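Quick start: read one record
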Amino acid sequence: MSQRVVIAGAGPTGLLLAAELRLAGVDTVVLERLPEPSGESRGLGLHVRSIEILNQRGIVDRFRTPETEAWPAMHFGLFWLKRPEGPKEDYTLAVPQWRTEHALEGWARELGAEIRRGHELTGFTQDADGVAVEVTGPDGPYRLDAAYLVGADGGHSRVRKLAGIGFPGSGSAFYGVLGDVVVREGETVAYSAELHPGGWMATVPIENGRKLRLMTTEFDQERPGDDVPVSDDELREAIKRVTGTAPDFEETTWLSRFGNSTRLADHYRDGRVLLAGDAAHVHYPIGGQGLNTGLQDAFNLGWKLAAAVQGRASEGLLDSYEAERRPVGRRVCVNTQAQVSLLYPLEKITPLREIFAELVKFPEVNDFLLHLVTGVGTRYEIPLPEGAGEPHPLLGLLAPDLELTTPDGPVNLTERLHPGRGLLLHLTDGTTQPPDTTGWNDRIDTLTAAPHPDLDTTTLLIRPDGHIAAATDHPTTLHHALTTWFGAPSTAGGAV
């Protein structure tokens, strides 16, 4: 059986997944139908949860340049949310999608991923032993054998369609158009988003203020056919219909239309075929959630798929990808629909907006919405053995970025996750020894450190994606977590 994974789509989701698989030593091929990167930037930023996972691999600085700034604001239904105090780069980074893709592709190639541009997946068949992928490249058609196939090929995913995975939801009822405009010399424009009876209009400085994104959504305007090219005049007219004023700009560098179609795949897995990113979920592009949710899909899937390919996955490990990520995708679809409900029709929802404006002043409401949009509130349901008692408050959360004190000196917890392996963290004052994990030493590392006030436990088992799989030194519970997430021990000495 082939030990290769084939990924369709070289967007942010596919590229991060390729890097994660290569980090685990899996032969990985990415198929991208476009011969060159498009240079387009539908996504404009990285949320805090995406920053955290990139930091866990030690590559977040690849996305920062001297020009990188934080997003000036985040909103929910155009209600501005207060961000936590602290360094601005710790919460959001204004990184255009083309730069995100460039950084991820560079990392994936460094790790040994093969990225074939100008190669398009045209079909596949699967059986119990693998997937035969049909591809058309510059030199004609060929076949590529794989252990698994991942569709990271966008909302119109060919992989999803060929797999016969349903994609129910609603079609697009709104019409939006956007254009990126070069800012004139000496001109500065602030971020703004204004709601009007017929729609809303946003002005977003991008690329360190050198460009400006003008974006509209109209609630009662018919969308032109796909055969009609988007033009500067179309953007000008849309802005005038919404705001009453025609904008003054010379020429755009990129134009596109969008809508509010909301769909969620029935399944994220069909045998040896899996979906990630927009191939699994599409929604109204508000709050920059699409790109970030796709990155987090890839981060969850990568280590699990690697374990399956290498024959060390426990039963059900690969199914846990859908169990954990599909509820997140559904949550994103729901919250974007909720935001739309706060925008239109304005004459009817104005009373609701008045009440909502009062609610977001409460810190608890503000933080809930902020965590909802950024994914910070994501906690995975971690199965516990019978009789384990109540789950620890840390269980299922992302491990915090902490400085720890060890016998060898200070250690950063996040840095210990860079290799993409599991980590057993034992917190002791020197009077106890960490649990014996001999049988899993090929999959997890052990770190002994002094107790930390933010970690109310003696032992933490952290998955390769940084989520806490166990927060206990109870032998039965810890053994259950080890076998659930890391498979059976490789030797008889692995009993905890």
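The first strand starts at residue 4 and ends at 8.
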